[in-house]
Amino acid sequence: MAIEVGLRRLTLADLDRLAALEGCQPRHWSRGQLEAALLDSECRVWGAELGERLVGHAVIARLPYAAELQAMLVAPDMRRRGLAARLLEAVVEQSRQWGSERLLLEVRAGNVPAIALYRRAGFGEDGRRRGYYPPLEEAADAHREDAVLMSRRP
For residue 100, with 0-12 CB atoms within 10 Å meaning exposed, 13-18 middle and 19 or more buried, which class applies? Predict the structure, then answer.
């Protein structure tokens, strides 16, 4: 079920809410990393808000000739409602405004829902980085996970 949220570029005033949202996942960006992204003139941090609540965010960086989706997160209780697709649309539009030739991203090979979202949005697989991500869990049988490299034209 899709819901109506507001999308806007986040600022330093949103850092507390952004850090709280990011903290809901096991491997998350630090407060310092989030602050650096908000202050970087070559980055944009887009937020999805439901009322006063920040329910999702996406970080996009401008590179020479390309843009890179560096992070995207939707609050666990708000998933499967179209928010990631809305954030991704904002990221694609930002890369267009920058005049980027490609929009790049990498995703854990085991993140099947995210890979499906990216494929629906026109991203194709460009390659893999074997054993790139550390395990999500500390279990004895946990192993490193591949990164799937994807891109599309904006």
Answer: buried
For the stretch 104-149, pLDDT in tens is 999 999 999 999 999 999 999 999 999 999 887 766 667 899 999 9
CA dist 84 and 118 (Å) reads 10
The tokens describing 26, both together, are: 């096991």
Report domain extents, the chain: 6-152
Q: Give the separation between CA 152 and CA 35, rounded to whole angstroms.
A: 28
Q: From the CB of residue 109, how many other CB atoms can be counted at a distance below 10 Å?
A: 16
Q: Is the dihedral of CA 50, 53, 58, 60 positive or negative?
A: positive
Strands 66-74 and 102-108, sheet pairing: parallel
Q: What CATH fold (topology level) applies to the domain 6-152?
A: Aminopeptidase (3.40.630)
60: which strand partners?
Answer: 44, 69
